[in-house]
Design brief:
The structure is a homotetramer. Chain A is built from eight helices and 19 strands. By secondary structure, chain A is of the alpha+beta class. The first copy, chain A, has one domain: Chorismate synthase AroC (Chorismate synthase, AroC fold, 4-Layer Sandwich). In chain A, a hairpin with a 2-residue loop joins strand 9 and strand 10. Chain A starts with a strand and ends in a 9-residue tail after the last helix. At the B-C interface, strand 2, strand 3 and strand 7 of B face strand 2, strand 3 and strand 7 of C.
């Protein structure tokens, strides 16, 4: 089940970076949803490379084609198959990458697991695969929208530059005006400068994406193993380059006292609410109706222009340096991927919750 | 599937804090494993309350009884059913907890999801349920031991007191000499003092558990959604009170440059190894044969003796303060739970990897 | 997942014939269902051996104990753990069965798969395990009852004696008056005579169980792989001794013309109905609102008193004859098991169908 | 999970009869398998319509395109994505079928479940979808071939004409010389005559496909719910138009005595074998090393040229008669589909069995 995500709303994905195409199947999408195809393509465009001078200039014109599951503009309840052609798959010279294990890439581990690998452009381990998740997430978001649930993410840190203040959900959209997807302009500028420095030094940067989910009913998630934030964490840690995940107070909670950390309940507008939100919108593994808040840490890009020591698949020492231009920092492009995975988790939990009570069948 | 963990080696769990019993079923354990029952009970004892003056004095004599799946000392390949009786289930006065939503507990969210809840002692949301995971993990560890794989965890932080140095795997066992399961004695003493202070202040503390897995072959984990550390993160975030998870460099990676973060490959003893281990033993979602390193953040215990504001299930404002003594810090007792969940993930990934290559069937 | 049945309403089962206990966990039962415990025990009693002179005289006092998931008489949405003690587990002399592969039993295949087996009383392969399914099915039936869905089964054939006429759903209950669970008394008597003959000849008999499900809404089941009757067939073929399954017209359909077999639609009481029901209530894999009709074929019991040729686990030729008395025909006792498995399939399909339409979320 | 089949070797399918394309994803295929693409296409050709004057003259040139998971001729262990374009999707006049519920078709039940349907050519309920299964099965067979396992099926009955004798596995291939895929020529001729009669009468016929699996090791399958033949039955009953399934002696077992039905063990060439094979190669749910024998019953095709009574989606009575020519009997074309589904079950069970013993990890 490694390439399927979700229990009821399920995305199954295929495709390598330089194969003929990538694509997926969404199974379990409720019937009768009017699909906004323009919006789906817009989400894909947010992820594509070459959006600015800060990202890789490789142009990927990712056009998604839907083959099934939609009829007269509506979902039919049958699986939605879709394909994105890999246009830029001319036969390049992969002789170096073919026999060399690039540091902190998946070359060695794929060989160890499978005994062979499609080395062209990283094959299955390439982040190109995340385009499929963005398509799945875009459809998930349209289901969520019917129930008034929205998701937003933005760049909270790039390398040394961090945005310390909290961002209101409605201000997250401002990040789309920023080359680095940071909603506060002066911090955005500092982040851009940091990226430019990394480019100049043939180096790369990591960062943090922060995200919020609003409009959730209380009670989503499953007790014990599939707590809402456990499923979220699983989703986020499955994104390339992610090294950490935290919900609400996160690692900072480890340094807090209970008397400070506890979120006191109160009643507002006849709703049970919490005064603070250290819980990040999840208590006992279930949503409590507050904003779900989480953060995702990305390591710096492994591909850098500097000379690095490594070994060949014959176990000989080798020196290598990446040629051409590469993304010095993927964190801005990770924003729509984080949103997509959050949408997949949320819609699945929404659907899983439809059978929790006998009086609501 | 909320109460089942794993794809091949699967633990299904049942039980509430103050019901008749808790228990579980392990399905998919390979046949022919000689089970060390003493070792399983020993793991359970590491988790039980009342181990020291720092933890709750409630004595839980958790005796696990195995009902199936073991014959003449060996696993038979059929499901292993086990039960732990809840001895301390006398009819208490739950009138207060029954109608009140305790801050940062699961009372409100369970009611929201299910329309009712077993309020006695927290019911299903109680950490008592983790005893089942420890039993499952103890059996998983015995499978792993056959393949030379070991897991160790220790307390790296309690509230403000942190252990900054790295601990070699073989030194992790020293933590069993410490009341707070910290392997370095002078830090352990500071942690104990911090806990004593919290007790005096009727407050509670959070902390961090650090863990290592050694002896792993390269290639465990699944590309894309079920990366090794994504499954680990899912497991850890499913433990009560966990707010964050990181693998290898974790959140610190967000502030690092690629030239520093990349783990250069080299050959040692004819093995491909990395000079550093920022990856935490996982690259491209698959183990690379290095130590797997991860950290888990726990929030402070929600139950405190101080007076707190909250609401009743009738939405009336209420003041409450926990009576009796409670764990001021669960992090030391979380150590065997972290190890157990790591064992469940690892054994499942080991088994899932048995079908990855046609030449190894 | 071999010992878990269902996708949303999930029964996980453990236990061997002569281990300490058997039991199970039901996960995914909606919260708020008032459980009728007497009814559950009644179902168990229908399955137990020793009900009449025609079945094995071994008395199994199967008392089910519920350990979790029920509070103040209602399901809580958390897993329902239950255990049935194996009372009759005194240490017998199993020396013969231990080393001999009984013809048409599972002794040889278990050894081949696992390298060892719990040979006492057949271990996991014993039909004793079906008691767990009856408990799960009894709870499933109570969920179904809330939605007006009922299930009934009866013995349609024992060896050479068959009941050729159709039985109306409300007459199925008459079979509880029959020692062989056949609702038509003169056929029942012939069946009983056939069983008496088999006993006298130290032989055994097979038979057929017929079943109906009524009150189903149209649309249950899943297109393609998980058609309603495919899931039903899976369930039935998983019952011990079952060799065949058919829905509606079944094998007879192979000999019919389309012009005869097709079920013409008509409108009755503003409902779309079919004039005939060769489809057996399922079209395109989905229920159509008509009665679901299916039949299940059981082979004769493998344990017989006659001398048989076989081999030992050392591959030596051996003669053997079963000692003591055994069930000459399990088909009457299979009736509640067929009903239970049908209930598990139906409730799971009912719950899976809760997310099929966006306008019904 | 309705559109995914299998636990480890998993086929997920998408596509409607007259959408843009159909296709699928195979996940869990072991790496390193040399794929014979010609053989895959050959299997597809066996299923396609228009193979003879007895089947529909509609020409479907089903060309499968593989998009991922294969590199330099070998499987890579990553998901294999494939697509078959629907070439013949010109805009026809569907006005009649759009508003009418065809008898014994899926029109009504799809509407009942989803609230809408893609009515063109039957949409998802069309047997066109089985082409995907044939592709999946063709790859599964290549995995099985590495382990010496083969599958063969043939037509055993069409309407009133049955082949009563047993067919040796090596003679099954003779059926490819027959227009109706019956390996015995004089019976084949009678079957063809029966089909011609049905065509003349604007009627249709059902039939039975018989199949064998050889080369299986003992021990495949899972006890209790996922018995080998339960999984097989699930697979077969999921094929369009299937009404019944039986393993080994099947329904005939219900009329047999245990003394006749039991398969005595003996030793041949140091192997434990059975003298007879009423078990059909499965005992206790696990393969015993003998040939697996099973039969699948198909109803007559629902689409016939005769006038039929039915209702519209407005619940008005309607008369209809299918126009053009249609398959009067799909059973010959079902043979490769039965083989494909059997291959998918068998390869999945083979892979699931890789973790059954600790000494074989």
């Amino acid at each position: 089940m490694s390439n399927t995500f979700g229990k009821i709303f399920r995305l199954t994905s295929f495709g390598e970076s330089h194969g003929k195409a990538i694509g997926g199947i969404i199974d379990g999408c409720p019937a009768g949803l009017e699909l906004d195809m323009v919006q789906i393509q817009k989400e894909l465009d947010r992820r594509k490379p070459g959006q600015s001078r800060l990202t890789t200039p490789r142009k990927e014109e990712d056009q998604v084609a839907f083959y099934s599951g939609v009829f007269e503009g509506k979902t039919t309840g049958t699986p939605i198959g879709f394909v994105i052609q890999n246009k830029d798959q001319r036969s390049k010279d992969y002789s170096e990458i073919k026999n060399v294990y690039r540091p902190s890439h998946a070359d060695y581990t794929y060989d160890a697991k499978y005994g062979l690998r499609d080395y062209r452009g990283g094959g299955r381990s390439s982040a190109r695969e995340t385009a499929i998740r963005v398509v799945g997430g875009a459809i998930a978001r349209q289901v969520l929208a019917v129930k008034g649930i929205s998701i937003g993410a933005y760049v909270q840190r790039i390398g040394p530059v961090a945005l310390e203040q909290d961002i209101a959900f409605e201000d997250i959209a401002l990040s789309e005006n920023s080359l680095v997807r940071c909603p506060v302009s002066n911090i955005s500028e500092k982040m851009e400068a940091a990226v430019q420095t990394a480019i100049a030094e043939k180096d790369s940067l990591g960062g943090v994406v922060a995200a919020k989910i609003i409009g959730l009913p209380a009670g989503l998630g499953e007790p014990v193993f599939d707590k809402f934030h456990a499923a979220l964490g699983h989703a986020m840690l499955g994104i390339n380059a992610v090294k950490g995940f935290e919900i609400g107070s996160g690692f900072a909670a480890a340094e807090m006292n209970g008397s400070v950390h506890n979120d006191a309940f109160e009643v507002q507008d006849e709703q049970v609410r919490t005064k603070t939100n250290h819980s990040g919108g999840v208590q006992g593994g279930l949503t409590n109706g507050e904003e779900v808040l989480f953060r995702v840490a990305f390591k710096p890009v492994a591909t850098i222009g500097q000379v690095q020591q490594t070994v060949s698949n014959e176990k000989d020492p080798v020196e290598m340096a990446a040629k051409g231009r590469h993304d010095p920092c993927v964190v801005p492009r990770a924003v729509p991927i984080v949103e997509a995975m959050a949408a997949l988790v949320t819609v699945d939990m929404l659907l899983r919750n439809q059978t929790s009570r006998i009086d609501q069948l």
